[in-house]
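tmp note - Serine incorporator/TMS membrane protein
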Amino acid sequence: MSETTEVKVVKINLRNSGVVSWEELPGPLEQKHYDFSAEKKSSLNARYWYGIIFLLINLSAWFVRDYGQKVFPQPLYLKTCGHEGDDCFRTMGVLRVSLGCFIFFILMFLTTCKTSKLYEVRNSWHSKWWSLKFILLIMSLVAPFFLHPDIIQFYGELARVGAGIFLVLQLISVIQFITWLNKYWVPDEKEKRSCFLGLFLSTIFYLVSISGIGLMYPLYASKASCSLNIFFITWTGILLLVMMAISLHSKVNRGLLSSGIMAAYVVFLCWTALRSEPADPKCHSQKKASGNNDWTTILGFLIAIFAIVMATFSTGIDSQSFQFRKDEVRMEDDIPYKYGFFHLIFSLGAMYFAMLFISWNLDHTTRKWSIDVGWASTWVKIVNEWLAASIYSWKLIAPVLKDNKVMDHEDVAQQTDSSALP
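out:
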């Protein structure tokens, strides 16, 4: 008689330092490994399909904003905004497309947020079943066009909050990436990494940052009357010096690379904020007339669209930056990234691109082939810049304060023990 051998896998969870459960996995281990590899590959490829979907929805929102009145029926346009409501119709169109995108990805979030293993049905729902998800996507995009304008207006107010949350999460992800770069290029004798490359890159980033500040003065603050722009640029320079001083402090000692990369990022945010200001010939020597749709305007617009998609995609796959515990063991059958977090970021990204297309203003919209232009957009980016510098500085200071607190606690404990001795 032949005996049947069953393969059992013990799952160990270090949180409780014990066995969680036994699960019988039928079939040889080689076949199971192949299945896990195939499922993991399918899961990783699915990320790019969701990114493409998000890009197409962004382009749809742009089309509805700039050319929607030529496509949609006249009664729908008149009922929503009246005879002279061009800006209203364009804003409502963007918000409706954004709401459809939000609905789709929030449904994906609700149906995948608890997924943890590759053999779960929810993993297949995330990585496969594209025909069914395509139908769900079409329904999600069409439904908002039948909703009352008051509901769309309420969603617009909500989208402001969601877009702000998205910006904060994106900042944390960027700062975590900068920190990783600093650790990767820091001198290490064990891995035979010298300080030359890190020092070289630090010099490049600081030269780029200083050059950027130097160029912004003649471009956006050429006259004394441009006091607001002078303040923005000067304060950015001060932030650079503060971050560099904190990074080089003896108790922090993080070197120049991370602060150099962060300096370049902060200068970039300041530059994008100044470019978002409304046209002013006195302070903007390179502002174009509002009616010119030349190739530079179109190219800049397309680059901005792809930047939105890449920012959403990169933040969505960076769930590790937002984990409270870093000591979890990765098993072979674990999903490669957090599906729920991925779809949640895309749903917030839907709110973010809506705000960019209408320049964070629910009453007016931007001109054709433009994106994120207006004083509201300018102040959002400036606040984003200040918040980025603050988060980075706190990330440098917090470990020092924590160590000092621990040392003070140990000193008090030692004094207490000494006083207790006879």
